[in-house]
Amino acid sequence: MQVVNTIMELQALLDEARLNKEKIGFVPTMGALHQGHLSLVSEASKNSSVVVVSIFVNPTQFNNTNDLKRYPRDLQTDLDALSTVKCDVVFAPEVDEVYPETDTREFNFGALETVMEGKYRPGHFNGVAQVVSRLFDMVRPDKAFFGLKDFQQLAIIRAMTKQLQLPVEIVPCDTVREKDDLAMSSRNMLLSTMHRKNAPVIARTLFESCNFVANKSVEETKESVINAINATQGLEVEYFEIVDGYTLQPVDNWNDSDYIVGCIAVFADEVRLIDNVTYKK
Ligand code: PAF
Fold it and tell me: Of 3.40.50.170, 3.30.420.10, 3.30.1300.10, 3.30.300.20, which CATH number belongs to 186-279?
């Protein structure tokens, strides 16, 4: 595994790989790696001959400075974790390497970015699109791997790739969960003991709500999920939306679409957790 910090070093390695007709698989991350990330890396290694992982806490996607400050950073622990899977290149640049000048690009993802995360974290997806498009330019991967836990992010990255006509295949990967069902997230390590104990209620409530499709309306399902989670000590729902899985627009009825997903954001004290469940596909 080679660790590089500059675009020059990265491109020297990848140019050589491309000359050898290697297929490049890319997993962008912000570090604080867990099994969820490692499963993306494993997917990448099944589908490509050279696997590149970037570790970069992207300042432009944080709309809350405290969240950026508190974001866990520990490069050596991340490298140790990556050494347990097949990872060929780690790209861990400094902020100036990725943004030698302020990125002033404004993306327009229309209705995809005005709901859910886009509504509650203004500017977040513009920052994600800025960094992912830059990383794609630097790595020029054949395939890039993203977790379905960040359901809306995946839709935005697909839209960005299409808008910029980037020749990269976006590969969605299943959410990896802890034994007690909590979706893996770098933020889980920030939870207090009490919040960590109660956080699995989020996933379990979502899973249970799949049974409601047969006998509750969309509105009743939303109410029931929100009430159950808010009734749990330390948890407070920021939003729960039941949406069309392609357009991300809220649906009123279960037969409004053939792909329906419930997406949630919950505060566990100051730690913001997201998750989702597929009702229909
Ligand atoms: O999902 C993440 O960790 C980040 O949003 C990403 C895609 C690495 C961009 O910074």
Answer: 3.30.1300.10
